[in-house]
Each structure stands twice: as structure tokens, then as C-alpha cells.
Amino acid sequence: MKFLRRLVATLLIAVVAVTALLVWNHYDVQARGNGPGYNPALKVLRTPDIRFAALADFPFAPHYVEIVDPDLGTLRVHYLDEGPADGHVIVMIHGQATWSYSFRDMIPTLTAAGYRVIAPDLVGFGRSDKPADWEAHTFQKHVEWLTATLQALNIRGATGFLFDWGGYFGLPVAVAHPEIFARLVLNTTTVPRANSVLGAAWVAGWRRYILKPEQFPISGMVSDMTERELDADTLAGLDAPYPQERFKGGPRRLPMLIPATPLNPAHAPNAEVWAALAGWNKPTLTLISENLATQGFNPQVFHDQIPGTAGQPHEIYPDKGFFLIEENPEELAQKTIEFIERS
Q1: Which residues partner with 235 through β-bridges?
Q2: Residue 107 to residues 115, 117, 209, 260, 333: CA-CA distances in angstroms?
Q3: What are the φ/ψ torsions at residue 216 (nearest 5 degrees)?
Q4: Residue 35 — φ and ψ, nearest 5°?
Q5: At a CB cut-off of 8 Å and minimum separation 6, what does 101 contact?
Q6: 173 near 143, Cβ under 8 Å?
Q7: Could you write out the three-class secondary structure of the chain?
Q8: What is the pLDDT of residues 13-56, one digit of tens each?
């Protein structure tokens, strides 16, 4: 009985502590979320093309498609389209502090093998239009924006390479529109669904890390989460889409969208996505660093839930950080090619 009382008391303390952190994170950052110079009359921002002109390591031509949002109007979404037009399509979707630029070292290996690579920038990221009000970003909106983008590009039967938030939004798209993807590569991602107190504590800490600084260091975040030092060209490429803080509403907002408790509006639909993945029989590969596999991104969770992971050549990489796409790009590309060819 004493043990039970202590356990209940410990859980209550944990819940109160996490709730306090979540409340702090929510109310302390509202004023800075949109950045200095925010103009409520301006709904959408667009990064000037000049910001991308000097990227020496990014020789890819921009392409654009338009989608319609009922609140923001027409949004211009940027994507890369490389490789033979008749090649099997690999759709590469980026994460929080990245954009299609982060696939620059994977693309040549994939296209040389005869594949067509389409890499969109999520709304609010890269060369895509950016909602000026950071609260325009919701989990469901991003799922809808990504769905509209892939449907506008007529993607069918593709291989999805989903990194970080690319999986957060891409997996709901996959289960709702199974015709879009024939197989999936899951790279350092998950389905966030508020399923643990420890997870809630992590979300609270992540929000504090991202939202407390007055200036959100896009390239600094990536650099902090890789084991090797990034060069000046890479740092410049990561920062290129964000000339001012008010352009960073998307990267700043995403931590607020992670379901930390069941009260978050994304909790219920994400739980449904997770349940639906129990019926996902299409080939699915997981690639992750050893460090992340032991810190909240255990790939075994996917292996236990998704039938399509059975028998696949999953890989865990030692001595690497979160951003494998920056540290192991050629190897990830080759692994993706081998996975497609065997499945």
C-alpha cells in the first residue's frame, strides 16, 4: 500500500511538473512567435530569390506548384524535381530545421541510379510560402498542405523517404491516401501521440530549447545535433530561407504542435494513424542513429506495429547524430536504392 501511494504521488508530481512546463512554454513565447515586424495585414511571406542565388552546393532548379488554403488563399509550394522523368519516383520530405536543401548530397546518387527525386519544401519552410502568423501552422493543416501538394504533383506508387517531421506529416498522408506511396523509408521519425509522461517531459524541454531564444538559430540547431562539424556553406544553405525572425514561424511553431498530452488536438487523429499502421503491409525500412534509437526513437516500436517492416534490412548507425541526412547522405541514398530494388 505504501508503495502504491508513493507511486501515485510520484506520478502526480511528474504530471504537475510537466503541466507547469507546458504552460510556461505556451504563454512565455506568444509575443515572440511571429518575430519582430509582424504585420497582421500580411498573411503570407515569401523569401526573396536572391537569398538562394549564392548556394554553391545546391545546383538544382526550383519548381513550384500552387495549392489553396481556405484561410490563407493560394500558397506557392516549392519542390525539386531531379532525374529521368520516367524514373520511379522517390519523394523526400524534410523536418523542422531543414528544407529540400538537406537532400542535396543524396539526390545525385539516386538520380544516377535512374530514379526521379521529388523533394517538396513544407509550407513555411525553404522556398515555399510562409504563413506570417505562426498560429496558422497546425498539425492538421500541415497534413492537408502536404496532401494537396502531392496530389497536385500527381504522385502515385512512390517511395517515400520521410525524415523527422516528414514522417510526422507523411505517415498520416500515407494511411489516408495509400495510393501515393508503394513503400516507405522512415529516417529518425515517429507518430507523436502523447503516450507517456516521459514523452510529455521531453516535449516540454524541446519547446523550451526552441522557443526561449529571441533568435531561433536554424543552422545552429542542426549543427548542435550532428556529430561532425558542419562547414560554412552548409550553415549558409540551412539559413538561406529565413532572412528575418518573422520568416521562422514554421520552425518555431512545430514544437507546439507535438501532442504532449491527450488535450492536444493532434492526439486523437495521430492515435488513429498509429492504429491504422497495424494494417500497413507495404515494405517499410527504418534508418536511424544508435544515439537516437536509445533516446525516444526506438525503431523497434515501428517494427512491432507495422507488418511491412518484417524482414527488411533496417540499419542503426553508430557514432552519428539526429541529422543522418547531413552525416551519411550517400550511404542513406545507396541503402534506399537497395531497398527499392529488393522490394
Answers
A1: none
A2: 9, 7, 31, 35, 8
A3: -85, 110
A4: 80, 160
A5: 55, 58, 126, 237, 238, 240
A6: yes
A7: CHHHHHHHHHHHHHHHHHHHHHHHHHHHCHHHCCCCCCCCCCCEECCCHHHHCCCCCCCCCCEEEEEEECCCEEEEEEEEEECCCCCCEEEEECCCCCCHHHHCCCHHHHHHCCCEEEEECCCCCCCCCEECCHHHCCHHHHHHHHHHHHHHCCCCCEEEEEECHHHHHHHHHHHHCCCCEEEEEEECCCCCCCCCHHHHHHHHHHHHHHHCCCCCCHHHHHHHCCCCCCCHHHHHHHHCCCCCHHHCHHHHHHHHHCCCCCCCCCHHHHHHHHHHHHHCCCCEEEEEEHHHHCCCCCCHHHHHHCHHHCCCCCEEECCCCCCHHHHCHHHHHHHHHHHHHHC
A8: 345 444 544 444 443 455 568 888 899 999 999 999 999 999 99
- What is the rounded CA–CA span in Å between residue 141 and residue 129? 14
- Going along the chain from its start, the domains and CATH numbers come out as 2-342 (3.40.50.1820)
Contact 75, 134 (CB under 8 A): no
Nearest CA-CA partner of 343 in 311, 315, 316:
311
| Alpha-carbon gap, residue 147 to 169, rounded angstroms | 9
Per-residue pLDDT at 58 exceeds 80: yes
CB atoms within 10 A of CB 213: 12
Model pLDDT for residues 206-237, shown as the tens digit of each residue: 788 878 888 888 999 999 999 988 999 999 99
